[in-house]
């Protein structure tokens, strides 16, 4: 009698186990593509219902993302196939057995890691930058398969073979032109830290008339931000006449690609025109094994990038291209990551930089680490409640429509890479701000699966990288060097809720005295990410004008406030 009562439940369990039979993926590689005896890295398998692009380009935080599963490999001999099992971690479906039946486009990619024997004695496995700016799906040397169609079928054994028969080619570096020069130097500080040769690079835009004024020395405009392949926002020729207009879904603008080229060419005309300030403009390359840039500060996990940029790269540029070479003559600007970096270098090196313009900065107050208070909240992913788990949002549009949760954004990173090695946003914040973990990798700020916050790690973040807290803590010591130099801009509907930290920082700045902070904080009404303080233009235009906007602002408004009395401010204004 009891067995009869249990039969329906047993049948349901059996039915589910058949419907979601676990597929097995057998990965092999073309040995002729490999220049090492074994492979180290992350094996990534991607499945897509969409056929308009390779699966490796269809993994994202939004609702239209496709599937990715990842597993670490070490000492994998290419003569042996790698078997993907249920131990592999996936996004947005966590387990292989839960892939719904159906037809899929499948692709494998091996993100290759190398051993770093660091100066602190730790040996770690990480993906070195190969000149592409730490993009796992475009990294030279990474192996991948030609996409093919498969069927996940619960009635079969679901054993699927995938052959990595392609290798991503090397990056072709940009060539010098009349105005734009490219440099690359070995950093002694970073090489000592990483136990191998490490390099810093820059794209240098020379002022108009630089050759004709050999005795003139120039201020340095430093734009911080993500890895630049070349000097962005610059084009010395008119827009392509036959350019096929493309629609920008982000800005709901048709022909945005043409608008970009028009803005780039307009900047060239301004730069070479009669009234533009004559400065040296620089975008810097400091990609590293964790991300496309270093956040421009010293870090237990990334090394002394702040010192390397400030005391090695920047003086080298000034020496090579006749920069003035004094703190007042260097100003920094940028948005998002670059916004945080602009404020960070001004805070960490008060006298080495003359002014910062920080637009839509990454969280500058960790009481609003996006929507998480690292000091008061216990869990990053969910709001507290007795009977309900309410997920925290991760991304919204200008009307507040949420398309991703903080939890899912972190799970995507966990599928791409373990131990903060995904090369994505939350992992790089962790790699920069955290102390060294017991395993030689960054200590987790929170459990990547559950969201439980580690308060000890949060305290380390606060004392070393919470910029608002550091400004308040050290104002009595450095306030005279910070006063008048801090300019913050953010849209009040920033997609990542970065405006929340700016609100807190603004309140704190207005409380400072002796001296007063004497800076600027401004907000864009319903403006999304990348808003930079320009109320006269929509965001899709103003975000293309960082160079012209901030270089003019510094030269016309701010340099006189911070240059020593009697300084020559005219020779570079020809």
Give an account of the 3D structure.
The chain folds into three domains: 2-167; 180-365 and 466-562, Rossmann fold, CATH 3.40.50.1820; 374-462, no CATH class. The model is unreliable at 1-20 (pLDDT under 50). By secondary structure, it is α+β, with helices and mostly antiparallel strands. Helix content is 26%, strand content 23%. The strands form eight sheets. Strands 13-14-18-15-21-22-27-28 form an eight-stranded mixed beta sheet, with helices on both faces. Strands 2, 3, 5, 6, 9, 10 and 12 form a seven-stranded antiparallel beta sheet that branches. Strands 4-1-11 form a three-stranded mixed beta sheet, with no helix packed on it. It is built from 13 helices and 28 strands.
In the CATH hierarchy, what is the architecture of the largest domain at level 2?
3-Layer(aba) Sandwich
Percent in strands: 15-25%
Calculate Rg over CA atoms: 26 Å
Largest sheet: 8 strands, mixed
Number of strands: 28
Q: Give the CA-CA distance, first to last residue.
A: 99 Å
Overall pLDDT: 94
Helix content: 25-40%
The name CATH uses for the topology of the largest domain is Rossmann fold
Overall morphology: globular
Count of DSSP H/I helices: 13
Unreliable spans are 1-20
Secondary structural class:
alpha+beta
- Number of folding domains? 3
| Main β-sheet, spatial strand arrangement | 13-14-18-15-21-22-27-28
């Amino acid at each position: 009698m009891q067995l009869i009562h249990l039969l329906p439940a047993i049948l349901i369990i059996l039915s589910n186990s058949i419907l979601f039979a676990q597929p097995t993926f057998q990965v092999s590689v073309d040995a002729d593509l490999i220049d090492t005896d074994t492979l180290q890295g992350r094996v990534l398998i991607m499945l897509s219902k969409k056929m308009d692009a390779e699966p490796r380009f269809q993994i994202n935080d939004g609702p239209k993302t496709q599937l990715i599963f990842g597993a670490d490999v070490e000492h994998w001999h290419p003569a042996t196939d790698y078997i993907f099992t249920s131990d592999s971690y996936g996004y947005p479906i966590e387990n292989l057995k839960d892939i719904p039946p159906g037809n899929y486009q499948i692709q494998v990619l091996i993100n290759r890691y190398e051993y770093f024997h660091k100066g602190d004695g730790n040996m770690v496995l990480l993906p070195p930058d190969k000149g592409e700016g730490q993009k796992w799906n475009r990294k030279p040397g990474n192996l991948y398969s030609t996409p093919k169609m498969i069927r996940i079928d619960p009635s079969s054994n679901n054993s699927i073979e995938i052959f990595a028969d392609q290798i991503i080619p090397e990056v072709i570096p940009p060539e010098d032109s009349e105005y734009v020069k490219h440099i690359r130097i070995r950093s002694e500080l970073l090489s000592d830290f990483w136990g191998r040769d490490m390099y810093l690079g820059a794209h240098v835009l020379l002022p108009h008339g630089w050759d004709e004024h050999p005795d003139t020395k120039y201020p340095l405009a430093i734009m911080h931000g993500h890895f630049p392949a070349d000097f962005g926002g610059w084009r010395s020729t008119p827009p392509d006449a036959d350019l096929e207009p493309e629609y920008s879904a982000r800005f709901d603008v048709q022909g945005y690609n043409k608008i970009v080229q028009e803005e780039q060419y307009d900047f060239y005309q301004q730069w070479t025109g009669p009234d533009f300030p004559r400065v040296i403009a620089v975008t810097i390359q400091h990609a590293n094994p964790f991300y496309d840039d270093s956040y421009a500060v010293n870090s237990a996990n990334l090394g002394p990038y702040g010192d390397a940029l400030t005391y090695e790269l920047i003086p080298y540029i000034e020496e090579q291209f006749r920069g003035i070479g004094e703190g007042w003559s260097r100003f920094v600007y940028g948005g998002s990551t670059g916004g945080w970096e602009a404020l960070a270098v001004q805070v960490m090196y008060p006298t080495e930089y003359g002014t910062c313009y920080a637009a839509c900065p990454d969280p500058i107050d960790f009481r609003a680490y996006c929507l998480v208070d690292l000091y008061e909240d216990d869990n990053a992913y969910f709001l507290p409640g007795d009977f309900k788990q309410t997920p925290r949002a991760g991304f919204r549009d200008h009307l507040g429509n949420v398309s991703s949760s903080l939890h899912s954004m972190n799970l995507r990173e966990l599928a791409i890479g373990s131990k903060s090695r995904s090369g994505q946003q939350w992992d790089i914040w962790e790699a920069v701000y955290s102390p060294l973990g017991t395993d030689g990798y960054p200590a987790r700020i929170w459990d990547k699966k559950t969201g439980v916050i580690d308060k000890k790690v949060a305290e380390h973040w606060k004392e070393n990288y919470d910029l608002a807290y550091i400004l308040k803590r050290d104002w009595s010591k450095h306030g005279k060097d910070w006063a008048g130099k801090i300019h913050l801009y953010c849209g009040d509907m920033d997609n990542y809720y970065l405006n929340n930290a700016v609100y807190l920082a603004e309140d704190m700045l207005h409380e400072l005295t002796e001296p007063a902070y004497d800076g600027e904080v401004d907000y864009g009404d319903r403006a999304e990410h990348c808003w930079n303080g320009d109320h006269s233009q929509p965001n899709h235009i103003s975000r293309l004008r960082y160079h012209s906007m901030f270089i003019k602002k510094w030269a016309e408004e701010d340099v006189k406030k911070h240059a020593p009395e009697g300084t020559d401010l005219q020779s570079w204004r020809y």
